[in-house]
C-alpha cells in the first residue's frame, strides 16, 4: 500500500474524487482546504501501479509507503458522527457518542471498503432507504462495499436483505460488519445476475455510472411491479446517459436527488 498527496481546485474536487475511486483508490482523506484549493491524501493498495498512478494523479507529491494502519489513523482523526435523515445515526466504532433518541445506530470502522457515510452518495442512498422502506420488504444491495446500506435496511425493518459485491475484500469487510452489527443479511460474491425476476421491493446500488447503466436491464428485471430502485454513485453530468440507459431497459425514472455535484435517481420498473 502507498499514498500520494494531491492538490486540486475546489471546483474540480468532486470530479477528482470520482476519478480516484474509478482508478481503484482504497481511501481518501481531505488534509487541508483553502478558498480555491483542496489537498487530499489518497491511498492505493496495488504497489505495482505506483509509478503509473503517481504520474496520473501525483503531480509534485511523493509516493509514500503506507499500510492499513495509516488509513485507520487518518480515519480516526477525520470521521465524525452524523445524523442522516430522520432516523439514522452513523458513528465511528471508536466513538462513545450516545445514539440520539428515535434513531438507529450504524457503526462504521476504518476498513478499506467504500461506505463510511461520509460521502454524499451514501447519504443520499440512506435517506432514500429511510423514505421508502416499509416493514417486511425484500431489499437488494448491489455493490454493497462496507455494507452500510444493507445494514441500514435491516435495522429499519426490512423483512429480508440480500447484498452482493464483486470485490472479495469488500465482501469480507461487509461480512465482518454485519456480524458486529448483529444483522441478518444474505451476502454473496457477485452482482445483479444473482437475483431472480420480480424479486425485490427495494434495490439500492451506489456504484459507478457505467455499472448503473450496464446493469439497467437487471434493475428493471429484479424489481417487483411496485418496487423502487435507488441508484447513485454518479455526478450531475452523468444523469442524462444513465437515465437514457434506464429508460431503454424499461425502467421509469421517478425523481432525481442531489447533494453538491453528486446525484441519486429513483426508478420504477415500467
Describe the structure.
The chain is of the alpha/beta class. It has two domains: 2-77, Alpha-Beta Plaits, CATH 3.30.70; 117-269, Rossmann fold (3-Layer(aba) Sandwich). Helix content is 33%, strand content 33%. It has nine helices and 14 strands. It has helices at residues 13-22, 50-58, 68-78, 120-132, 148-155, 168-181, 209-214, 216-222, 239-248, and strands spanning 2-9, 27-33, 37-44, 64-65, 82-84, 88-92, 104-108, 138-142, 160-165, 186-189, 200-206, 223-235, 251-259, 262-269. The strands form three sheets. It has a seven-stranded mixed sheet with strand order 10-9-8-11-12-14-13, with helices on both faces. A four-stranded antiparallel sheet has the order 2-3-1-4. It has a three-stranded mixed sheet with strand order 5-6-7. Strand 9 (160-165), helix 6 and strand 10 (186-189) form a beta-alpha-beta unit. The longest helix has 14 residues, at 168-181. The chain is globular. It starts with a strand and ends with a strand.
